[in-house]
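Deoxyribodipyrimidine photo-lyase structure dump, as promised
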Amino acid sequence: MAIQAGRIRILHDVAPRAGGAYVLYLLQQANRAHFNPALEYAIAEANRLKLPVVACFGLLDGESGFPEANARHYAFLLQGLAEAKAGLERRGVAFVMRKASPAEIAVDLSGRAALVVLDRGYLAIQKRWYGAIAEGVDTRLVQVEGDVVVPVETASGKHEYAARTLRPKLHRIWEAYIAPLASRRLLHRADERDLPRGIDLSDPDAVLAGMNLDRSVAPVKRFRGGEGAARARLKAYLAGPFADYGSDRNRPEAGAASHMSPYLHFGQISPVEIALAVRAARAGQAEDKAAYLEEVIVRRELAMNHVFYTEGYDAYARAVPDWARKTLAEHARDPRPHRYSEDELAEGRTHDRYWNAAQAEMRETGYMHNHLRMYWGKKILEWSPSPEEGFARTLRLNNRYFLDGRDPNSFTNVAWVYGLHDRPWAKRAIFGTVRYQSENSLRKFDAKAYLKSVEDLCAAEA
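structure tokens r here:
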């Protein structure tokens, strides 16, 4: 039940501030009140110091907002934060949210803190926040990993070539990390009267309405944010569709996907909690469980490895391997039978009705099955005027409409379309030796049933 030592990084190795009023926890990536190693560490330290815990969150909007985030993303985030706040307060933890960057609110509230605890994410913007906090905080500063099963540097000290090179490294050590996490009882409850006022989260829709952000992409009905919604969806999934995960996971119409990715992206459920639940599930055979753990641990943490060790992971010249850029450049002038503008792609106005349906599912509901994500991305490469423009379009559309866009998985999956974590294949027009995906891949599932499912899903959003 203890927090693994590999999850804990001491950023300021000094004694806690004498006379501090509380232990401060910046809840920014792990937006949940349970199965949260950083929160449990903060509570344990607060008990040791005989202090309460204050959790804080910096809400960005306007020009300083999180890059490419819009009303769809913020609605889901705020729903989750409202539930996290209620859960924290039931545990005796105070919660303060302000219009500020995570670094600004953490540094400001650290002035009265004996100790500051951070959770962790791996994107460049998150690294910048942590760096600013380390520069601005003058007391003990500790970071506790809760967003992956195995901390990235523990799994590997370098950028991995492919899943096959990372997989054995994870398998050797992941048992120590796939372990339950006890909820600690906080001995000293926080008194919110002693804290500065923050944003009232009792009505997430009202908070959203007051924000300065892009509202052209609307919130969705298909998914509601929050750790309660995440656990309910996981429980229902493991009791039913998961039984056929091994055979049906690549069939979009079969309903074998768990839809955990938005909740993982916003830190509303722990990947360790998911792994434990999958292992304990009565439904599903050993091969189903192994296949699911491959996705939620190996593939997801390969993406974390990529963004952590790649400066410029959102840029074609840095994210795409040399061999792939070379072969795509050699075929950049190849005739393209179909070309579409970015607006035509966004609106799903192509000759390919199955691609259009996948785009509609993403645009209207914030989700697209992984099998179709690959087909969707390959076609954008094929239909764009250059590989560089194709990469930029794919990333913009991905980050704009997916609930789990702007995620390490998103950046990695888009780069995979262009050759990342892959090898050269047979040469063909436009793609060179980068892997091609044809319409024949749609024969592997019931494409007509998928069209009907998308029609129903989009009607439900109307």
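The mean pLDDT is 95.
lmk if u need the other ones
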